[in-house]
Amino acid sequence: xxxxxxxxxxxxxxxxxxxxxxxxxxxxxxxxxxxxxxxxxxxxxxxxxxxxxxxxxxxxxxxxxxxxxxxxxxxxxxxxxxxxxxxxxxxxxxxxxxxxxxxxxxxxxxxxxxxxxxxxxxxxxxxxxxxxxxxxxxxxxxxxxxxxxxxxxxxxxxxxxxxxxxxxxxxxxxxxxxxxxxxxxxxxxxxxxxxxxx
Length: 198
Known about the structure:
Number of strands: 0
Number of helices: 7
CATH superfamily: Ferritin, core subunit, four-helix bundle
């Protein structure tokens, strides 16, 4: 009982606590595995979706950023497979309704806008919603891994968390430095591009 109280008092003060093998700890581990299956499904869905986003973007830097993030996402899927192996679990994903909805929203934006900076701004908007979902997911997974004493797993997940945060910064820079301004000023619209070609 004193040990349990000590663990509680140390939690959140930079000291790792590993709960005893209780039903509560087992429940948290099951939730952790379930959340990992959710995010691996989400990452695989994103691998399928990113090429479509790149093809619908008109800004060359945005296309490049999306394609670079595709390569990063593929490595993240591989890293998750490594996590499943370390935990002795299969890497089969579980349908992630949140990611499905976010991807669908992005597809609708692309369908409802013309090629040009407004569509690019919409792609960034959809992409950042995805990034923020992933940042929240990986932040939670890192916390779960640490409290469960899975330090190596936590380290791998922290790598991915850092990559997702970096992707969000890149998208923010692209939006504020060029694309949103172009969208407001009407530069690079489909009509404008056609006029430049004539």
